[in-house]
TrEMBL record:
This is NAD(P)-dependent dehydrogenase, short-chain alcohol dehydrogenase family. GO terms for molecular function: oxidoreductase activity, acting on the CH-OH group of donors, NAD or NADP as acceptor. It holds the Pfam family adh_short_C2. InterPro entries: NAD(P)-bd_dom_sf, Sc_DH/Rdtase_CS, SDR_fam. Belongs to the short-chain dehydrogenases/reductases (SDR) family. It comes from the Bacteria. Keywords: Oxidoreductase.
């Protein structure tokens, strides 16, 4: 079990205030790492760090701003002297403020260019910049693990029938940008793994399945029905995978995509 021990290591988690970001922070801290919880909102990431006690700290940063990320990296190195793990978790998953307009706005033919550009900026450029700024420090140190959080929708296309209620009415469509950006994250993961393999930095992706989080009952039931394990994921279901990818337990693993999806992509 010592292979999973992260004692003495420093981990940065972006999007730390999100549903899964909080879990990633907790898992890494429980494995012994000192965790830097990073989010664009200072107050929310401070609340995450507070829950970690002495095992973590909050430093707000904008993943789309290289100056902000350099300040983050410098602050972490000044504090702990090292960066061992980077979890690129920050991402946008489209939500439509007006439920009445969601169906039409989410159609591919109507999908707003502004939403497309914003998701590309955060979900793809954000991963690129965090890896470029923070990962470059890891490469210079000759060690590290980068974990890019992707999605099953980076592997398979969205099943639009999941968003259809029991009366057969399409509530909305899963939009094109989330699968596109998560597919890009997987390609970028392979690129970076090959590029930094000789520098001692491992780069892997973690692709979570759908997480139960207050969705309509019909969606939860239908998603569970088409998943071999018969349920959606709980937010805690990815803790072990994050620790595994961050630790020496996955020491001969790079350029891989670890699917933790209850078998969703197996059928």
């Amino acid at each position: 079990m010592s292979l999973f021990d992260l004692g003495g290591k420093t981990a940065i988690v972006t999007g730390a205030a999100g549903l899964l970001g909080r879990q990633h922070c907790q898992a890494l801290a429980e494995a012994g790492a000192f965790v830097v919880a990073t989010d664009s909102d200072r107050d929310t990431c401070a609340a995450v760090a507070e829950a970690l006690g002495k095992s973590g700290i909050a430093i707000a940063a904008d993943v789309t701003d290289p100056v902000s990320l350099r300040q983050l990296a410098d602050a972490v190195r000044s504090l702990t002297g090292r960066i061992d793990v980077l979890v690129n978790n920050a991402a946008i998953n489209d939500k439509f403020e007006n439920p009445a307009a969601a169906l039409e706005d989410s159609r591919f033919e109507n999908y707003p260019l502004e939403m497309w550009k914003r998701s590309l900026e955060v979900n793809v450029t954000g991963v690129f910049l965090c890896s470029q700024v923070i990962g470059a420090d890891m490469a210079r140190a000759g060690r590290g693990s980068i974990i890019n959080v992707a999605s099953t929708y980076g592997v398979v296309a969205p099943d639009q029938s999941l968003y259809r209620d029991p009366e057969g009415r399409q509530r909305f469509y899963k939009t094109p940008v989330y699968p596109t950006t998560k597919g890009a994250v997987l390609a970028f993961t392979r690129f970076l793994a090959a590029y930094w393999g000789g520098a001692g930095v491992r780069v892997n992706a973690l692709s979570p399945g759908g997480v139960e989080n207050g969705q309509d009952d019909f969606f939860v039931a239908e998603y569970s029905r088409r998943t071999p394990l018969g349920r959606m994921a709980a937010p805690t279901d990815f803790r072990g995978a994050v620790v595994y990818l961050a630790s020496d337990a996955s020491g001969y693993m790079t350029g891989a995509n670890l699917l933790v999806d209850g078998g969703f992509t197996a059928i």
